[in-house]
TrEMBL record:
Pfam families: IMS, IMS_C, IMS_HHH. Gene3D superfamilies: 3.30.70.270, 3.40.1170.60, 5' to 3' exonuclease, C-terminal subdomain, DNA polymerase, Y-family, little finger domain. Monomer. Mg(2+) binds at D27, D121. Its EC number is 2.7.7.7. InterPro entries: DNA/RNA_pol_sf, DNA_pol_Y-fam_lit_finger_sf, DNA_pol_Y-fam_little_finger, DNA_polymerase-Y, DNApol_IV, PolY_HhH_motif, Rev_trsase/Diguanyl_cyclase, UmuC. Keywords: Cytoplasm, DNA damage, DNA repair, DNA replication, DNA-binding, DNA-directed DNA polymerase, Magnesium, Metal-binding, Mutator protein, Nucleotidyltransferase, Transferase. Residues 23-203 form the UmuC domain. This is DNA polymerase IV. NCBIfam families: PRK02406.1 (NF002677). The keyword Ribosomal protein does not apply. It comes from Yaniella flava.
Length: 424
């Protein structure tokens, strides 16, 4: 990465003031909704959100028209509809978002190998090595937007700065469909008038503490003594002062290892029946394992999460003696975890989640699947474990060819039939 202190004399004659701002933050605008609007263009310009239609679902993505009513991502759907009763709610389509994300990331990798994907719809890239070939960082940002739109028909926003923190702030303040450029030598000048909550790590509670100390802007924060801030706030004090001064030494890391894969479900009505809870756990275990296999990972640990009716959250984790990616194995290990949580404190369950921890690429598929149940390795047991793996492969193959096919564990299908009968 080119230093922010590089002299203008070392720049090419055609380089503009963005030459030293080599870190770009690319963020897709209202990504999930924008993808849905490609298939439903008649909804463009209307207050709309993506999310489940049940009252306990949350907003995944909101149009800018919906945001004018105070509707935001992660807001409970019931609250969003209360803010605007005529809100258009679109059910999410995971496969469409994955396909669009892959197209976006492919465009970025054409620009530079220095791509750090943060989520399905945003990434950092370092274009220091691409400037001679493609132009200044500001020109590369415009090129990225054009190529992303050509590949996906989707709008994006790009922040251009000398480091990650400022690039993210610049993109946030340039939405929608914009480019925000912060020349390296103007970093502190750009940050100074902004509210202190733009700094990473400064949440509502910390904002209140800072405001009570008459620290309202990033410029106010930048002037604080780091030792005094450490005594007051601990390790976070010097850290946020450094960010306020435009100091961020983190580099763009192309190989960002996935640490976990999780799925969860918020119930329309609180679950009070242990048998019913077990059926949902079975479904989540198979879904979590399917996502693991889709991404080419195995797990060395498993966790479960239960949110009670009083909104308190409880979790329990375990380590696996042998890595696994089978839905049956996930369920057999998570079931005792949930049972223990419920024995210790039985409450109606509002949310249930399953997470695969310490995920990694399998060293050898045969080796990772030989001891799925952590029992003595008899020939019969080994053969059964291999059968589980073969069954998962069949399920995955069928799902690829027939996405709507309802091939699931028999007891889960029976549970769904019972639910439909009771609902009908």
């Amino acid at each position: 990465m080119v230093s922010a202190g590089q002299t203008s004399a070392s720049r090419p004659q055609w380089a503009d003031e963005s030459w030293d701002s080599t870190v770009l933050h690319i963020d897709m605008d209202a990504f999930f909704l924008s993808v849905e609007l490609l298939d439903q263009p008649e909804l463009a310009g209307k207050p709309a959100v993506v999310g489940g239609k049940s009252g306990r679902s949350v907003v995944t993505s909101a149009s800018y028209e919906a945001r004018r009513y105070g509707i935001r991502s992660a807001m409970p759907m019931s609250q969003a509809v209360a803010l605007y009763p005529r809100l258009i709610v679109i059910e999410p389509s995971r496969e469409k978002y994955t396909r669009a994300s892959q197209q976006v990331m492919s465009v970025l990798h054409e620009i530079t190998p220095w791509v750090e994907q943060l989520s399905i719809d945003e990434a950092f890239i370092d274009v220091a090595g691409a400037r001679r070939r493609l132009g200044t960082p500001a020109q590369i940002a415009a090129l990225i937007k054009d190529r992303v739109r050509a590949a996906t028909a989707l709008p994006s926003t790009v922040g251009v700065a000398a480091n990650k923190s400022v690039a993210k702030i610049a993109s946030d303040h340039s939405k929608p469909d914009g480019i925000g450029v912060v020349p390296a030598e103007q970093t502190r000048q750009y940050l100074a008038p902004l509210p202190v909550n733009v700094i990473w790590g400064v949440g509502p509670k910390l904002v209140q503490r800072l405001n009570n100390a008459n620290i309202h802007t990033v410029g106010d924060l930048a002037m604080q003594d780091t030792r005094r801030m450490q005594r007051w706030l601990g390790a976070v004090g010097p850290h946020i002062v450094g960010l306020a001064r435009g100091d961020d030494l983190r580099i763009v890391e192309p190989h960002h290892d996935t640490k976990s894969v999780s799925v969860e479900h918020t119930f329309e009505q609180d679950i009070t029946n242990a048998h019913e809870l077990e059926k949902y756990l079975l479904d989540l275990s198979y879904e979590c394992s399917r996502r693991m296999r889709h991404d080419g990972f195995v797990a060395w640990g498993l966790s479960v999460k239960v949110k009670d009716v009083d909104l308190s959250t409880r979790t329990k984790s375990m380590s696996l003696q042998t890595a696994a990616s089978s839905g049956a194995v996930f369920f057999n290990h998570t079931k005792p975890l949930v049972e223990e949580l419920m024995r210790n404190r039985w409450h109606p369950v509002r949310l249930l989640g399953v997470r695969a921890d310490r995920v990694a690429e399998p060293v050898e598929q045969q080796e990772t699947q030989e001891s799925l149940f952590d029992v003595d390795e008899t020939p019969t047991q080994t053969h059964a474990n291999q059968d589980w793996y073969s069954t998962d492969q069949i399920l995955d193959d069928v799902a690829k060819k027939f996405p709507s096919a309802a091939i699931k564990p028999a007891r889960l299908l029976q549970h769904e039939r019972q639910q439909r009968m009771s609902d009908g």
